[in-house]
Design brief:
368 residues; alpha/beta; Rossmann fold; 2 domains; five-stranded parallel sheet; 7 strands; globular; binds thiamine diphosphate; binds magnesium ion
Protein backbone atom coordinates (compact mmCIF):
# COMPACT_ATOMS: atom_id res chain seq x y z
CA UNK A 1 0.00 0.00 0.00
CA UNK A 2 1.40 3.35 -1.04
CA UNK A 3 0.01 6.85 -1.19
CA UNK A 4 -0.09 6.45 -4.98
CA UNK A 5 -3.32 7.43 -6.72
CA UNK A 6 -4.52 5.46 -9.75
CA UNK A 7 -5.27 7.70 -12.71
CA UNK A 8 -6.38 6.71 -16.22
CA UNK A 9 -7.53 9.86 -18.05
CA UNK A 10 -4.66 12.32 -18.42
CA UNK A 11 -5.21 16.06 -18.32
CA UNK A 12 -5.49 16.22 -22.11
CA UNK A 13 -8.09 13.44 -22.27
CA UNK A 14 -5.62 10.74 -23.35
CA UNK A 15 -5.81 7.41 -21.61
CA UNK A 16 -2.97 5.66 -19.84
CA UNK A 17 -1.93 2.66 -21.92
CA UNK A 18 -3.68 -0.63 -21.24
CA UNK A 19 -5.82 0.82 -18.43
CA UNK A 20 -9.03 1.77 -20.23
CA UNK A 21 -11.92 -0.30 -18.79
CA UNK A 22 -13.33 -0.48 -22.36
CA UNK A 23 -16.91 0.53 -21.68
CA UNK A 24 -19.27 0.65 -24.66
CA UNK A 25 -19.93 3.98 -26.38
CA UNK A 26 -23.52 3.99 -25.10
CA UNK A 27 -22.42 3.35 -21.55
CA UNK A 28 -19.78 6.09 -21.66
CA UNK A 29 -22.32 8.58 -22.95
CA UNK A 30 -24.85 7.53 -20.32
CA UNK A 31 -22.31 8.07 -17.54
CA UNK A 32 -21.40 11.51 -18.89
CA UNK A 33 -25.07 12.44 -19.23
CA UNK A 34 -25.69 11.42 -15.61
CA UNK A 35 -22.83 13.61 -14.39
CA UNK A 36 -24.21 16.58 -16.30
CA UNK A 37 -27.69 15.92 -14.93
CA UNK A 38 -26.37 15.66 -11.36
CA UNK A 39 -24.77 19.08 -11.72
CA UNK A 40 -27.95 20.63 -13.09
CA UNK A 41 -29.93 19.07 -10.24
CA UNK A 42 -27.47 20.57 -7.75
CA UNK A 43 -27.58 24.03 -9.31
CA UNK A 44 -31.37 24.03 -9.29
CA UNK A 45 -31.57 22.64 -5.75
CA UNK A 46 -29.37 25.36 -4.29
CA UNK A 47 -31.19 28.04 -6.27
CA UNK A 48 -34.52 26.86 -4.84
CA UNK A 49 -33.09 27.06 -1.34
CA UNK A 50 -31.76 30.58 -1.96
CA UNK A 51 -35.20 31.61 -3.23
CA UNK A 52 -36.72 30.34 0.01
CA UNK A 53 -38.72 27.65 -1.73
CA UNK A 54 -37.04 24.70 0.01
CA UNK A 55 -35.44 24.68 3.44
CA UNK A 56 -32.03 23.14 2.80
CA UNK A 57 -29.80 21.86 0.03
CA UNK A 58 -26.49 20.09 -0.23
CA UNK A 59 -24.43 19.91 -3.42
CA UNK A 60 -21.95 17.38 -4.80
CA UNK A 61 -20.14 19.74 -7.21
CA UNK A 62 -16.84 18.19 -8.25
CA UNK A 63 -17.67 14.74 -6.91
CA UNK A 64 -19.77 13.47 -9.81
CA UNK A 65 -17.13 11.08 -11.20
CA UNK A 66 -16.54 9.57 -7.79
CA UNK A 67 -20.09 8.40 -7.19
CA UNK A 68 -21.29 7.86 -10.77
CA UNK A 69 -18.19 5.84 -11.70
CA UNK A 70 -18.39 3.66 -8.60
CA UNK A 71 -22.12 2.93 -8.61
CA UNK A 72 -21.94 2.07 -12.32
CA UNK A 73 -20.06 -1.12 -11.39
CA UNK A 74 -23.06 -2.59 -9.52
CA UNK A 75 -25.96 -4.70 -10.73
CA UNK A 76 -29.47 -3.27 -10.30
CA UNK A 77 -30.12 -5.94 -7.67
CA UNK A 78 -27.21 -4.71 -5.50
CA UNK A 79 -27.79 -2.30 -2.62
CA UNK A 80 -26.54 1.17 -1.79
CA UNK A 81 -26.06 2.66 1.66
CA UNK A 82 -25.38 6.26 0.68
CA UNK A 83 -24.21 9.44 2.36
CA UNK A 84 -25.88 12.72 1.35
CA UNK A 85 -23.59 13.73 -1.52
CA UNK A 86 -24.31 11.28 -4.36
CA UNK A 87 -27.16 12.76 -6.45
CA UNK A 88 -25.98 10.91 -9.59
CA UNK A 89 -26.86 7.55 -8.06
CA UNK A 90 -30.65 7.91 -8.22
CA UNK A 91 -30.31 9.50 -11.65
CA UNK A 92 -28.20 6.66 -13.07
CA UNK A 93 -30.38 3.99 -11.50
CA UNK A 94 -33.53 5.51 -12.96
CA UNK A 95 -35.30 6.68 -9.79
CA UNK A 96 -38.52 8.64 -10.27
CA UNK A 97 -37.52 12.31 -10.48
CA UNK A 98 -40.76 13.23 -8.70
CA UNK A 99 -39.57 11.23 -5.71
CA UNK A 100 -36.38 13.28 -5.61
CA UNK A 101 -37.97 16.69 -6.05
CA UNK A 102 -41.01 15.98 -3.86
CA UNK A 103 -38.54 15.00 -1.13
CA UNK A 104 -37.02 18.52 -1.28
CA UNK A 105 -40.46 20.00 -0.73
CA UNK A 106 -41.70 17.30 1.68
CA UNK A 107 -44.94 16.70 -0.20
CA UNK A 108 -47.31 13.74 0.05
CA UNK A 109 -45.50 12.13 -2.92
CA UNK A 110 -42.19 12.22 -1.09
CA UNK A 111 -41.54 8.57 -0.16
CA UNK A 112 -40.50 9.82 3.32
CA UNK A 113 -43.69 11.94 3.62
CA UNK A 114 -41.73 15.01 4.67
CA UNK A 115 -40.19 13.33 7.71
CA UNK A 116 -36.62 13.77 6.50
CA UNK A 117 -34.42 16.80 5.83
CA UNK A 118 -34.33 17.81 2.16
CA UNK A 119 -31.75 15.79 0.15
CA UNK A 120 -32.05 12.79 2.48
CA UNK A 121 -33.69 10.45 0.00
CA UNK A 122 -35.05 7.01 0.66
CA UNK A 123 -35.59 5.24 -2.67
CA UNK A 124 -36.75 1.68 -2.25
CA UNK A 125 -37.34 1.35 -6.02
CA UNK A 126 -33.58 1.45 -6.66
CA UNK A 127 -32.31 -0.33 -3.51
CA UNK A 128 -31.15 3.00 -2.10
CA UNK A 129 -31.37 2.96 1.68
CA UNK A 130 -32.57 6.07 3.51
CA UNK A 131 -29.79 8.66 3.89
CA UNK A 132 -28.88 9.22 7.53
CA UNK A 133 -27.78 12.59 8.88
CA UNK A 134 -25.63 11.17 11.69
CA UNK A 135 -22.21 10.74 10.13
CA UNK A 136 -21.06 7.17 9.47
CA UNK A 137 -24.10 5.15 10.52
CA UNK A 138 -24.57 3.81 6.99
CA UNK A 139 -21.13 2.15 7.17
CA UNK A 140 -22.06 -0.32 9.90
CA UNK A 141 -25.55 -0.78 8.40
CA UNK A 142 -24.01 -1.77 5.05
CA UNK A 143 -21.64 -4.19 6.77
CA UNK A 144 -24.56 -5.79 8.62
CA UNK A 145 -26.70 -6.09 5.50
CA UNK A 146 -23.75 -7.64 3.64
CA UNK A 147 -23.20 -10.14 6.46
CA UNK A 148 -26.89 -11.08 6.25
CA UNK A 149 -26.62 -11.66 2.48
CA UNK A 150 -23.63 -13.87 3.04
CA UNK A 151 -25.53 -15.94 5.60
CA UNK A 152 -28.44 -16.24 3.14
CA UNK A 153 -25.92 -17.31 0.49
CA UNK A 154 -27.14 -14.83 -2.09
CA UNK A 155 -24.60 -12.96 -4.19
CA UNK A 156 -25.78 -9.38 -3.64
CA UNK A 157 -23.05 -6.77 -3.25
CA UNK A 158 -23.42 -3.72 -1.00
CA UNK A 159 -21.76 -0.37 -1.60
CA UNK A 160 -21.58 2.31 1.04
CA UNK A 161 -20.47 5.92 0.66
CA UNK A 162 -18.98 8.22 3.26
CA UNK A 163 -16.57 11.12 3.55
CA UNK A 164 -13.08 11.64 4.92
CA UNK A 165 -14.68 12.99 8.11
CA UNK A 166 -16.69 9.80 8.58
CA UNK A 167 -13.49 7.76 8.93
CA UNK A 168 -13.25 9.30 12.42
CA UNK A 169 -16.64 7.89 13.45
CA UNK A 170 -17.35 4.91 15.66
CA UNK A 171 -19.42 3.33 12.91
CA UNK A 172 -16.47 3.34 10.53
CA UNK A 173 -14.57 1.16 12.99
CA UNK A 174 -17.51 -1.16 13.69
CA UNK A 175 -18.41 -1.55 10.01
CA UNK A 176 -14.88 -2.07 8.70
CA UNK A 177 -14.03 -4.52 11.46
CA UNK A 178 -17.14 -6.69 11.15
CA UNK A 179 -16.99 -6.72 7.35
CA UNK A 180 -13.34 -7.78 7.29
CA UNK A 181 -13.71 -10.48 9.95
CA UNK A 182 -16.78 -11.95 8.24
CA UNK A 183 -15.55 -11.37 4.68
CA UNK A 184 -18.81 -9.58 3.96
CA UNK A 185 -19.57 -8.58 0.32
CA UNK A 186 -19.31 -4.83 0.78
CA UNK A 187 -17.35 -2.05 -0.90
CA UNK A 188 -16.53 0.95 1.27
CA UNK A 189 -16.26 4.08 -0.89
CA UNK A 190 -14.61 6.89 1.06
CA UNK A 191 -15.02 10.10 -0.90
CA UNK A 192 -12.11 12.15 0.35
CA UNK A 193 -13.20 15.63 -0.71
CA UNK A 194 -10.54 17.26 1.53
CA UNK A 195 -13.04 18.85 3.92
CA UNK A 196 -15.54 17.91 6.63
CA UNK A 197 -17.57 21.13 6.78
CA UNK A 198 -14.77 23.53 7.85
CA UNK A 199 -12.28 20.87 9.05
CA UNK A 200 -9.54 20.18 6.49
CA UNK A 201 -8.42 16.60 6.05
CA UNK A 202 -5.06 17.49 7.66
CA UNK A 203 -6.95 18.11 10.93
CA UNK A 204 -9.15 15.05 10.49
CA UNK A 205 -6.61 12.26 10.65
CA UNK A 206 -2.97 11.54 11.44
CA UNK A 207 -2.96 8.93 8.67
CA UNK A 208 -1.25 9.89 5.45
CA UNK A 209 -4.14 8.46 3.46
CA UNK A 210 -7.65 7.28 4.22
CA UNK A 211 -7.12 4.05 2.27
CA UNK A 212 -4.29 2.92 4.54
CA UNK A 213 -6.77 2.55 7.38
CA UNK A 214 -8.09 -0.53 5.54
CA UNK A 215 -4.86 -2.41 6.18
CA UNK A 216 -5.34 -2.38 9.93
CA UNK A 217 -8.74 -4.00 9.49
CA UNK A 218 -7.42 -6.67 7.13
CA UNK A 219 -8.82 -5.64 3.77
CA UNK A 220 -7.34 -4.03 0.65
CA UNK A 221 -7.35 -0.23 0.56
CA UNK A 222 -7.03 1.44 -2.84
CA UNK A 223 -6.56 5.13 -3.69
CA UNK A 224 -7.94 6.43 -6.90
CA UNK A 225 -8.26 9.81 -8.59
CA UNK A 226 -11.88 10.55 -7.75
CA UNK A 227 -12.16 13.08 -10.58
CA UNK A 228 -11.29 10.45 -13.17
CA UNK A 229 -14.40 8.41 -13.85
CA UNK A 230 -12.61 5.62 -15.70
CA UNK A 231 -10.12 5.11 -12.89
CA UNK A 232 -12.93 5.05 -10.32
CA UNK A 233 -14.82 2.56 -12.46
CA UNK A 234 -11.84 0.28 -12.86
CA UNK A 235 -10.96 0.16 -9.17
CA UNK A 236 -14.56 -0.30 -8.03
CA UNK A 237 -15.25 -2.99 -10.61
CA UNK A 238 -12.38 -5.01 -9.19
CA UNK A 239 -13.69 -4.47 -5.67
CA UNK A 240 -17.26 -5.44 -6.61
CA UNK A 241 -16.11 -8.57 -8.47
CA UNK A 242 -13.99 -9.54 -5.50
CA UNK A 243 -16.92 -9.09 -3.11
CA UNK A 244 -19.22 -11.12 -5.37
CA UNK A 245 -16.69 -13.94 -5.52
CA UNK A 246 -16.92 -14.16 -1.73
CA UNK A 247 -13.43 -12.80 -1.12
CA UNK A 248 -14.56 -10.02 1.18
CA UNK A 249 -14.62 -6.23 1.43
CA UNK A 250 -12.43 -3.51 -0.10
CA UNK A 251 -12.07 0.11 0.87
CA UNK A 252 -11.70 2.57 -2.00
CA UNK A 253 -10.56 6.13 -1.30
CA UNK A 254 -11.63 8.45 -4.10
CA UNK A 255 -9.42 11.53 -3.92
CA UNK A 256 -11.63 14.41 -4.95
CA UNK A 257 -12.74 17.89 -3.95
CA UNK A 258 -15.91 19.50 -2.66
CA UNK A 259 -16.16 22.44 -5.06
CA UNK A 260 -19.14 24.01 -3.29
CA UNK A 261 -19.78 24.88 0.33
CA UNK A 262 -20.66 22.04 2.71
CA UNK A 263 -24.36 22.84 2.35
CA UNK A 264 -26.74 25.76 1.95
CA UNK A 265 -26.04 26.57 5.60
CA UNK A 266 -22.38 27.62 5.34
CA UNK A 267 -20.06 29.74 3.18
CA UNK A 268 -16.79 27.99 2.29
CA UNK A 269 -15.08 31.27 1.40
CA UNK A 270 -15.05 32.03 5.15
CA UNK A 271 -12.69 29.14 5.90
CA UNK A 272 -10.80 28.09 2.80
CA UNK A 273 -8.47 29.62 0.22
CA UNK A 274 -9.77 30.68 -3.14
CA UNK A 275 -6.44 29.52 -4.57
CA UNK A 276 -7.09 25.95 -3.44
CA UNK A 277 -10.52 26.04 -5.07
CA UNK A 278 -9.03 27.37 -8.31
CA UNK A 279 -6.48 24.56 -8.39
CA UNK A 280 -9.18 21.92 -8.09
CA UNK A 281 -11.47 23.67 -10.51
CA UNK A 282 -8.91 22.88 -13.21
CA UNK A 283 -9.50 19.21 -12.43
CA UNK A 284 -13.27 19.34 -12.85
CA UNK A 285 -14.34 15.71 -13.41
CA UNK A 286 -16.94 16.60 -16.03
CA UNK A 287 -14.47 18.53 -18.19
CA UNK A 288 -11.93 15.75 -17.82
CA UNK A 289 -14.36 13.10 -19.02
CA UNK A 290 -15.54 15.41 -21.78
CA UNK A 291 -11.99 15.66 -23.12
CA UNK A 292 -11.78 11.87 -23.25
CA UNK A 293 -15.12 11.59 -25.04
CA UNK A 294 -14.09 14.26 -27.55
CA UNK A 295 -10.98 12.30 -28.46
CA UNK A 296 -13.23 9.33 -29.11
CA UNK A 297 -15.68 11.47 -31.06
CA UNK A 298 -18.49 10.70 -28.63
CA UNK A 299 -19.14 14.30 -27.59
CA UNK A 300 -20.43 17.30 -29.49
CA UNK A 301 -21.55 20.69 -28.30
CA UNK A 302 -25.03 20.09 -29.76
CA UNK A 303 -25.40 16.86 -27.81
CA UNK A 304 -24.31 18.56 -24.58
CA UNK A 305 -26.88 21.28 -25.18
CA UNK A 306 -29.58 18.76 -25.96
CA UNK A 307 -29.05 16.65 -22.84
CA UNK A 308 -28.79 19.75 -20.63
CA UNK A 309 -31.90 21.40 -22.00
CA UNK A 310 -33.94 18.21 -21.88
CA UNK A 311 -33.04 17.56 -18.27
CA UNK A 312 -33.57 21.19 -17.21
CA UNK A 313 -37.05 21.09 -18.75
CA UNK A 314 -37.94 17.78 -17.06
CA UNK A 315 -36.65 19.13 -13.77
CA UNK A 316 -38.60 22.37 -14.11
CA UNK A 317 -41.78 20.32 -14.66
CA UNK A 318 -41.00 18.21 -11.58
CA UNK A 319 -40.50 21.35 -9.47
CA UNK A 320 -43.78 22.80 -10.73
CA UNK A 321 -45.53 19.54 -9.92
CA UNK A 322 -44.02 19.37 -6.42
CA UNK A 323 -44.98 22.96 -5.60
CA UNK A 324 -48.55 22.28 -6.69
CA UNK A 325 -48.74 18.98 -4.78
CA UNK A 326 -50.54 18.39 -1.53
CA UNK A 327 -48.65 18.19 1.71
CA UNK A 328 -48.56 14.83 3.47
CA UNK A 329 -51.87 14.10 5.20
CA UNK A 330 -52.18 14.55 8.93
CA UNK A 331 -52.79 10.81 9.25
CA UNK A 332 -49.42 10.14 7.62
CA UNK A 333 -47.73 11.16 10.88
CA UNK A 334 -49.22 8.06 12.43
CA UNK A 335 -48.96 5.71 9.48
CA UNK A 336 -46.00 3.67 8.22
CA UNK A 337 -44.28 3.79 11.57
CA UNK A 338 -45.66 0.57 13.06
CA UNK A 339 -47.21 -2.25 11.07
CA UNK A 340 -49.93 -2.41 13.74
CA UNK A 341 -50.33 1.00 15.38
CA UNK A 342 -51.12 0.85 19.09
CA UNK A 343 -54.55 1.75 20.47
CA UNK A 344 -53.06 4.89 22.05
CA UNK A 345 -51.56 6.01 18.77
CA UNK A 346 -54.87 5.59 16.96
CA UNK A 347 -56.63 7.55 19.70
CA UNK A 348 -54.10 10.33 19.34
CA UNK A 349 -54.68 10.39 15.59
CA UNK A 350 -58.46 10.61 16.08
CA UNK A 351 -58.01 13.40 18.59
CA UNK A 352 -55.76 15.38 16.25
CA UNK A 353 -58.12 14.90 13.31
CA UNK A 354 -61.06 16.06 15.41
CA UNK A 355 -59.31 19.41 15.81
CA UNK A 356 -59.60 20.06 12.08
CA UNK A 357 -61.90 22.82 10.96
CA UNK A 358 -64.83 21.47 8.86
CA UNK A 359 -63.76 23.08 5.54
CA UNK A 360 -60.07 23.39 6.06
CA UNK A 361 -57.00 21.21 5.74
CA UNK A 362 -55.40 23.00 8.63
CA UNK A 363 -55.37 21.59 12.11
CA UNK A 364 -57.08 23.90 14.57
CA UNK A 365 -55.45 25.26 17.68
CA UNK A 366 -54.31 22.86 20.32
CA UNK A 367 -55.96 23.24 23.72
CA UNK A 368 -53.06 24.21 25.95
C1 LIG B 1 -22.32 11.95 14.34
C2 LIG B 1 -22.33 13.30 13.71
N1 LIG B 1 -21.43 14.23 14.10
C3 LIG B 1 -21.42 15.44 13.53
C4 LIG B 1 -22.31 15.76 12.54
C5 LIG B 1 -22.28 17.14 11.87
N2 LIG B 1 -21.75 16.98 10.53
C6 LIG B 1 -22.57 16.95 9.44
S1 LIG B 1 -21.71 16.76 8.03
C7 LIG B 1 -20.24 16.72 8.83
C8 LIG B 1 -18.95 16.58 8.07
C9 LIG B 1 -18.78 15.26 7.41
O1 LIG B 1 -17.64 15.30 6.60
P1 LIG B 1 -17.27 14.13 5.64
O2 LIG B 1 -17.50 12.82 6.29
O3 LIG B 1 -15.92 14.39 5.11
O4 LIG B 1 -18.36 14.25 4.48
P2 LIG B 1 -18.58 15.43 3.41
O5 LIG B 1 -19.61 16.33 3.98
O6 LIG B 1 -17.29 16.10 3.20
O7 LIG B 1 -19.08 14.76 2.18
C10 LIG B 1 -20.42 16.87 10.21
C11 LIG B 1 -19.32 16.91 11.18
C12 LIG B 1 -23.25 14.77 12.17
N3 LIG B 1 -24.15 14.98 11.21
N4 LIG B 1 -23.23 13.54 12.76
MG1 LIG C 1 -15.32 15.36 3.38
Amino acid sequence: MTAEVLRIIERDGKVAKGKDPNLSDDRLRKLYQTMVQARILDERGLALQRQGRIGFYLQALGQEASHVGSVATLLDSDWIFPAYRQPGIPLLRGADLNHIVCEWFGTGEDPSKGRQMPVHYSLREINFVSISSPIGTQISQAAGAAMAAKIRKDDTVFMTYFGDGATSSNDFHAGMNFAAVRKAPVVFVCENNQWAISTPVSMQSGSETMAQKAIAYGMPGVRVDGNDILAVYRVCKEAVDRARRGEGPTMVETVTYRMGSHSSADDASRYRDQEEFERWRQRDPILRFQKYLRRRELWTEEWEQEISENFSATLAAAVKHAEASDKPTIQSMFEEVYMNPSKQLLEQMEQLLSLKGPESDEVGEFPL
